[in-house]
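Practice problem: Cytochrome c-550 PedF
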Amino acid sequence: MRTVPRLAGSAALALGLALSAQPVLAHGDVQPQPVDTTGLEPLGDEWRSENPYRGNATAIAIGDSGYNQNCARCHGLQVISGGLAPDLRYLEKGQEGDTWFQERVRHGALINGVTKMPAFEGVLSQEALWAIRSYLEAKHEE
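Answer key — C-alpha cells:
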C-alpha cells in the first residue's frame, strides 16, 4: 500500500489556499466607480464617433474625477503611467485619438488570452467616458 506524504502545517495551508483560490481577474475584483455627469449634455444611446465635450471645462473636471476613480490604478495618477499600462498623456488628440480611445474603453483589450483592459461599455455611461477623454486631452503632452 502506498502512502501519501503529509505536508507540514504551513505547506498544507499554502496548498489549501492555492486550491481554493478564485480565478484572478485582470484588475482584481475592483468595482468600477460611478461617475456623476451632472452638468453635461446627455448624448443618448448611439455612440458619438468624436468627443462631443472637447475643451468643455465641466467635462474636464468630471473626467478628472472619473479617471482618478476608475483609470489611475493602472494608467497612473494625473495620467502619469508607472509602466503597467500605456501612458495616456501621449494619446493622439482629435479624431484619431478619439477612435482609439472609444474602441479601447468600450471593448477593452485581450492580449494573449489575458484581459489587459476591461470593457467599460455598459459599466460607465458614454457621457462619463467622453468626459474622461476630455480630461486626457487636457493632460496631453507631445
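Discussion: The chain has a mean pLDDT of 85. Students who identified this feature from the C-alpha cells alone can consider the problem solved.
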